[in-house]
Amino acid sequence: MIDLLVAGGGPAGLATAIHGALAGLEVVVLEPRPTPIDKACGEGLMPGAVRRFEELGVPVPGSAFRGIRYVDGATGLRAEGLFRAGPGRGVRRTELQAALAGRAEALGVRVLARRAGEVRQDADRVGAAGLTARYLVAADGLHSPVRRALGLAVPAAPGRPARYGLRRHYAVAPWSDLVEVHWAPDCEAYVTPLGPDRIGVAVLTSRQAPFDVQLADRFPGLAARL
């Protein structure tokens, strides 16, 4: 019987698997998609996350940033907050996941190209994907099928609008060593330095509209710069 079964091989699932392996557990990760897995993401790690990855022995590539700058999309008014306990790090999600996968493999974690599917459990064990384990961690995303199947999903707050995440990369040199958060009433844009010649721009919005339209309508100054 396996000690720990992890459903989901993204950053959360792999970090959990590494923790388990470092504690001496036999760990298996279920992930049907090939590594690396990409998705819309701000791609910025706060200083605490950088330290946690270092403690796990995971090398974090990318570009350091020393704080957050908030920018009003309409007026350009700015406020900055600088970190006191070391820098954060902007890193491509694919690069971070590849680093986590490499560390997990080095620790003997097995990754199987399977979905968890139906979960069965009793007082002593849990079963999924044809495997039996002492424990199962559901790290299969915001809309976790495992969590939903077990009746543990939290219903959305009534009246709260859906939010959509969009992301694009630009082959330009970062103009700041801060993450910039541009905001408007129904939209935010996160600008993250990812390397000497690359930035990431992630948009979080309650409007359904293409990336270019979101920037042009809500953040014309940022759109013009890009």
Could you characterize the architecture of this molecule?
Helix content is 24%, strand content 33%. With 226 residues, the protein is of the alpha/beta class. The protein has two domains: 2-43 and 92-149, FAD/NAD(P)-binding domain (3-Layer(bba) Sandwich), CATH 3.50.50.60; 64-88 and 162-226, 2-Layer Sandwich (D-Amino Acid Oxidase, Chain A, domain 2). It has a six-stranded mixed sheet with strand order 8-2-1-11-10-9, with helices on one face. Strands 6-5-13-14-15-12 form a six-stranded mixed sheet, with helices on one face. Helix 1 (11-22) links the parallel strand 1 and strand 2 (27-30). Helix 1 packs parallel to helix 3 (93-106). The longest helix has 14 residues, at 93-106. The radius of gyration is 20 Å and the shape is globular. The termini are far apart. The relative contact order is 0.20. The model has no long low-confidence stretch (mean pLDDT 94).
